Amino acid sequence: MKMLSLIGIGSGNPQQITLEAIEALNQTDVFFLLDKGPLKEDLLHMRQEILERYIQAPGYRLVQVEDPLRDGGAGGYVDSVEDWHRMRARLFARLIEHELGDGQTGAFLIWGDPSLYDSTLRILERVEALGLDFEYRVIPGISSVQALAARHRIPLNRIGEPIRIMPGRCLAGEAQASIDNLVVMLDAHCGFAALTDEDLEIYWGAYLGTADEILIAGRLQAVKAQILEVREAARLRKGWIMDTYLLRRPLASR
Ligand SMILES: C[S@@+](CC[C@H](N)C(=O)[O-])C[C@H]1O[C@@H](n2cnc3c(N)ncnc32)[C@H](O)[C@@H]1O
């Protein structure tokens, strides 16, 4: 039987990797590295650093493949993601069939935690549906949301309150009055900049856990211009950016 491990490697800090993940790294025969776009080189470097640091007896193979690009989607967001997942499923099936021997273990190094805005699990379900015979397991990792809360020294929820997590593209459809304890990820268009609510506070973090980490917190209306400026300068300097933020209103304003 072929085995696959989806190993959560944290969201930038190689020290935020669990003992379970280190054990799984050491049990892996073949690592599949899939990246694309401007982050590709940096993410590859960070993953290689993790392998060099934690694998005691390097005898593994690296299989590096170009992740298929997602079409901008004339058919809409959901259709374009569906197409992209189909392409990735075919690619994963090829990797499992041709790059992994019977009795061997392959691994995908998943940024942050595999359960949060990562499609690998959904794609493996599709690969199973194609009829391939393999088993897989999931090793959790520290997500960027946990890293954000830790670096700002805040709890994600206040006593008895819910929290929500959403991608930036959903923020525009959100009534501003209902925004509280809201974590926003994948926000390439800085949705926070369009919010006008005077009460909202923001806890923002970019490149969390890395040497380039940037943290800004305060009243949204007071710091949003600063975040936009700092964010754009960092994005131009590095060629890519990953940022996450929490929006919350102070208890006194409710
Ligand atoms: C495709 S999602 C992957 C999330 C990942 N599975 C996790 O658990 O954090 C990518 C988004 O995660 C957030 N992110 C990931 N790493 C980050 C980091 N080091 N600093 C800030 N945000 C990060 C950003 O919002 C980015 O757009």
How would you characterize this protein structure?
Helices cover 35% and strands 22% of the residues. 28% of the residues are buried. Helix 3 (77-99) packs across helix 4. The strands form 2 sheets. A 5-stranded parallel β-sheet has the order 3-2-4-1-5, with helices on both faces. It has 2 domains: 2-139, Tetrapyrrole methylase, N-terminal domain (Cobalt-precorrin-4 Transmethylase, domain 1); 144-253, Methyltransferase, Cobalt-precorrin-4 Transmethylase, Domain 2 (2-Layer Sandwich). The protein has helices at 19-26, 40-54, 77-99, 120-129, 144-152, 168-171, 220-238, and strands spanning 2-8, 30-35, 61-66, 105-110, 134-139, 164-167, 182-185, 201-206, 214-219, 243-248. Residues 11-12, 111-113, 116-118, 143-144, 185-186, 205-209, 242-244 line the site of S-adenosylmethionine. S-adenosylmethionine is lined by residues 11-12, 111-113, 116-118, 143-144, 185-186, 205-209, 242-244.
* CATH fold label of the largest domain: Cobalt-precorrin-4 Transmethylase, domain 1
State the fourth-level CATH superfamily of the largest domain. Tetrapyrrole methylase, N-terminal domain
**SS element count, helices:** 7
Question: Which strand order do you get reading across the main beta sheet?
Answer: 3-2-4-1-5
Low-confidence stretches: none
Q: What would you call the shape?
A: globular
Mean pLDDT: 92
Q: Can you list the ligands bound to this structure?
A: S-adenosylmethionine
Query: In sequence order, what are the helices and strands, one letter per element?
Result: EHEHEHEHEHEHEEEHE
How far from one another are the termini?
A: 57 Å
Q: Rg, please? A: 20 Å
Please identify the structural class as seen in this structure.
alpha/beta
What is the CATH level 1 assignment of the largest domain?
Answer: Alpha Beta
The largest sheet is: 5 strands, parallel
